[in-house]
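Q: Hi! Curious about what Ribbon-helix-helix domain-containing protein looks like structurally. Here's the sequence.
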Amino acid sequence: MSKQIHDESQRKKQVKVRVDADLVDEFDQWCDDRDTNRSEAIRQHMRAAVSGGQEYETPRQPPNDDDRLATAYHRLCAVANQDGVIREDTATSILATVLGISKKETRPMVLRPLHKRGYLTRQSNVFGATSYHIAGWKN
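A: Let's find out. The predicted structure is below.
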């Protein structure tokens, strides 16, 4: 047994269920279509279920005045890691593909507006690499 001290708030609990094979196959296809995995999709559905009637699957209500920003926000939430962080190079590649714009345009057209509106916070590491944290993300 490990002698490491663990922060109890960071512990995760495993949940097991038995489901018909056909439903699992359909759900896996649904996950593939959204470029996510089964575990993250289940976590997102659990968050939505306990959010008190929240009608969106993201930490905050997506922008409702700009379809491009709403789509980008949904996609960033779908690909963020378990801490709600996504590297800038990953974000620009994915957003360029999803939105049909160049990687160079993703920063001024999408990432900066989402940052200014409070959906993302920008962070850098000691090597100078930039990543974004989705505001309001809870593990």
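A: A fun detail: The chain has two domains: 20-57, 63-139.
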